[in-house]
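Bench notes, afternoon.
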Amino acid sequence: MQTASLLSIGTELTLGQTVDTNTAWLARQLAALGIRAVRHETVADDLEPIVAAICRGARAADVVLCSGGLGPTDDDLTRQALADAAGCPLVLDERSLEQIRAFFEARGRKMRTANQVQAMVPAKGRLIPNACGTAPGIEVTIEETPVFAMPGVPSEMRAMFAESVVPRLSRGVPSRVLATRTLRSWGLPESLVGERLRDLMVRGGDPEVGTSAQEGEILLRINTHADSSADAARKLDAVEATIRERLESAIFGREDDTLAGAVGALLTAQAATVAVGESCTGGWLGKRLTDTPGSSAYFLGGATTYANTTKSAVLGVSESLLEQHGAVSAPVASAMAEGARRVFGSDYALSTTGVAGPDGGTEEKPVGLVFVGFAEPAGVEARSFRFGSDLSRDQIRLRTIHTALNWLRLHLLKR
């Protein structure tokens, strides 16, 4: 199987000012072509580091894909780096220069002199047309490895990759397929997941299973090689069935599925409804539920009752209960859930109240302490969770939301 090195170029990326989405996208596209990305690297806009990174990538894989650094300014150094790595000068491509000039004229603008540099290409390479912008890509062979440099603008890079790079890559790629699948789980720690799947996670196995944690969620990624898409699908299906058998209800979906979407599917199947009463999550739980198209079929409404007076006025939480136990308590969480179910007339209701931080914690009720309430026809219950003061405010609130949704999901699965 062929391999690829991916290189992202830009100081804005190394400083964290811009998030690199190109590399992840390219890796997925390559996998669909049967090419495995084995190296990701990001470098700043400095000539020597870019040259070194290109050469490292060329030695490490069968093909190198670069993005960024092809603009008209002095810090756009990719074309010069490619020329240096290939051991040749930059030369002007007159045809490309005319295309760039025409791009501006078609928009009623005059090409600036600075844009002429975008028509420069390593003497041993060739320019790749850019149908969406002014920066052509570049293809050049370095250390016997083909290198493709594309613009950093995602829309331009994706169009160029699909139109010009994929046909070039496909010529030398065997028909063998690299297929992937992602399963999503909640409720089991990564260490326990690893124990249950240890034999499937043996390095070098096929299919190959790996895990990663993402805000409390555990992702399980399955990769396999096969001679056809059908064979790959059968192998992925078999491993997925084994994982589901071992992790049971912890698995809630595949690929881009969400907990809220899984809950919504179960509510729809059971013709049931839900409402929410929120404090520490500030309306975020309701938003998550309504992010799913068609959620009006099962989500009746929510109340963001941040102040104690609002908890009483809107959800009917008694002032005496708030005075006796405080807003962050199991009795108040229960009363909020009961109130939300009563006010909106839903089958189920969830509530959240806690100390999301970074301030406001006490020895008795530290930052990260959260109570979730759950009301249903059979009664109401509240549970406490300690997510830890080391998490950020948003992380605590996100864990709270997922915990509440998963509680409802598990309940619906038992019906």
